[in-house]
Amino acid sequence: MRKDWKLHIIVLFFVFIGEAIGVKQFNLGVGTVALFPMLYVLLMGGIVSFPKLKWMNEVQMKKAAGILGISFMLFVAKLGSMLGPSLPKIFEAGASLAVQEIGHVIGTIIIGLPIALLLGMKRESIGATFSIDREPNLAIISEKYGADSPEGRGALGVYICGTVFGAIYLALLAGFLGSLGIFHPISLAMGAGVGSGSMMAAASGALAVTFPNDADDIALFAAAANLITTILGTYICVFFSLPVTARLYEWLEPIIGRKSKEAEK
């Protein structure tokens, strides 16, 4: 503990600053973007961990990552304590929870794969678009193709981007969509459960700010959707998403692949 005094002081300082700033909402005309303490802390953490600044070394960053895991355990434990009393609500929404999982799987393939090919990616696009590429998905790609394969590099690239920008992006998107008044807050909460604890926490936090009266239900359904995605998502990726993405790549790459079109010219 004493050896990491610098790390603990930095974290405490960031938390203090984030809470002092509080929740800020900005009206963009068509909707509202909500900024809350977690986003500020994420940004400040990203700044101090920038290698050229040399404020934190790699050892401290790894220790911080370990502490983050413990923090999410506490967060998940809190959500678990809320799940039990609310199981009837979850069972009532059973069909909705199951159907919304389709978007988590199909969306990355149908939308992401063509865009990746148009941008010039080759087999990296398979690993980058068969899922949102969290830890279980990296394990699947590594087992199937190898960590140093093009598919593995594509998955790792999305994993890094998701780790750095995912929580911020989903928080802004969730707050904006919630402010439009088009979607029910519970529907947005289900969509927040993408299989990543940090992304779910950021998105559900933004929704709780937008819909304060539904904050408990938002946390509940986001946690339920996230749990379903984590449990079922691994099997869906192995038996459906990855094979389908690989097959679609073989079909689409000669047609819309940027490098393939340039070769024809």
UniProtKB/TrEMBL annotation:
The keyword Iron-sulfur does not apply. The chain crosses the membrane at residues 32-53, 65-82, 102-121, 156-182, 188-211, 218-242. It holds the Pfam family DUF3100. It comes from the Bacteria. Keywords: Membrane, Transmembrane, Transmembrane helix. This is DUF3100 domain-containing protein. It comes from Psychrobacillus soli.
